[in-house]
């Protein structure tokens, strides 16, 4: 769970950085989308690197889901009734929302892939040619922006607790200092990802990027 989770942290940071290219204009974003497909050529075929990366993402997702359901069912078997003391304890909102927040994120990812990767539906104007035009047309629609705002808050909460939890699993929280670092890392990564992902949709929604 921790290893696949940290791989996703790396992935979302890279994806967020790529999305921010839209601030430099349509051409910068389209060039970046094109480069993702020509990376490794001529050693690899067109889109070869992207497909290798996609396979790694799928394996990481399966590992993450398998560990999550395993943990979930072990926690369920360990006690037949609700844990009254723990319920009453002060736990953070991010730790309490890991399970259902994770399920919500999975649904969001399916929606997101159907929209931008498989292009099964278009929001905004009719099918558009360039990746940047597709993104701009989509986020000019208020309800789509709202869905992404909610999803990014869910992602932030998940990353906040998840990063801390991964550090703990990997044994980096044995001293007060390392615990403080792990907590800080969770907060910084979550804040960065929410902010970085939300800048393009909000800038488009408010007409700063057209
Ligand atoms: C505001 C937030 C986001 C925007 C604007 C956005 C935008 C995009 C776009 C335009 C693509 C298509 C890229 C291309 O085909 O060149 C894409 C693909 C993808 N996005 Fe996002 N994304 C966002 C958030 C996320 C998040 C939070 C995740 C995961 C947790 C995610 C996971 C993916 C995946 C797995 C792909 C498929 C990559 C591939 O083609 O293999 N995205 N996204």
Question: In summary, what is this structure?
Answer:
The chain has 210 residues and is mainly alpha-helical. The protein is built from nine helices and no strands.
Structural class: mainly alpha
Shape: globular
Give a count of the beta strands, DSSP E runs of length 2 or more.
Answer: 0
Q: H/E series, N to C?
A: HHHHHHHHH
Number of helices: 9
In what range is the share of β-strand residues?
under 5%
**Hetero groups:** protoporphyrin IX containing FE
Low-confidence stretches: none
Task: Report Rg.
Answer: 19 Å
Helix content: over 70%
The end-to-end distance, rounded to whole angstroms, is 40 Å
Kindly report the average pLDDT value. 92
> What summary fits the major beta sheet?
none
Describe this structure in words.
- The chain is mostly helical.
- It contains nine helices and no strands.
- α1 (2-19) packs across α3, α1 runs parallel beside α9 and α6 (98-117) packs across α8.
- It is globular, with a radius of gyration of 19 Å.
- The site of protoporphyrin IX containing FE has 20 residues, from α1, α2, α3, α6 and α7.
